[in-house]
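Good morning C.,

I know you're traveling, so I'll keep this short. The sequence:
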Amino acid sequence: MTTINDELSTIDVGLSQVLKNITMFPLIHQDATESDYLTLDEALEAGTARITEISEGGTVPELQFLNEGDVPVLLLDGEELIGAKQNRVLNLSILAPANKSITIPVSCVEAGRWSYRSRNFSSSPRTMYAKARAAKSGHVSRSMKESGMRRSNQGALWNEISEKSERMSVASDTGAMSDIYERKEKAMKEFVERFQPIEGQIGAVFAINNAISGMDLFDSPDTLRKVLQKLVRSYALDAIETENPVDDRTDREDAKRFLQGLGDSQFESFPAIGLGEDLRIESKTMAGGALVVDDQTVHLWAFPLKSEHPSQREKVRSQITRSSQRRKMH
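The tokens, ready to paste straight into the viewer:
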């Protein structure tokens, strides 16, 4: 059986793309094949997929996904769904089978609304911003291990979005994460235009303010190309929150060390909601998961967890200082 470490060992870290305080390191696999599924955006545009509340009354942590097409549909961890009784984000990645209806686990990102704006959900041009997505991934992993359910800490996510809105001076009548993105769209635009996929790219590691913030890896370049702008917006929203952004100087060795740490991590396996199996990272320093189908990693996502213990903060600070000194020496 192919392991995550085996797959990561075949990945090359490309030359960085930098804008202000964000760096993107392309993850490259020259022999990657084309995908045999649709993205959510493609399925919704084709009219072969539909997302609704699970019933007329609805329930916050679950939605119904109907795939009426003849090929599977990939739903991404953190992908935002707009409409119905309140906006939600997906709690993990799912490969929804063809011609089947499944119940999907979600989290609310609009605390102040519980009334229909539409009968069906639409997709949005973004995923949940990286900091909140990292926290959600940790919540879901604990929930799966403790109860077998794929639930987030909903109250904690509402608080996180509320605090984000306050820090970024965005008022929202319904506490919607989407209002933050829409208000900051102009500031994010230059990042979306700057970070473009290169040949053979199947993923990316992102760094903000000289620290690795997270990564996503897919099984094909065409999937990465279709979803990259959504991912860039999620990191850009965290980056522009910095009051005085400085040019990021994270180097490729930092990205490689992050991938090495991910490859060395332990993963626990669970049956997937759709096709394949769900893997969850078991680590005190990293959160994330993977969707694996027929021994192929369709989507792998991971985020470093920042410790609040003073000694750990000092350790991270000293590591950054030493790294900076090494760069100056070169």
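Safe travels,
E.
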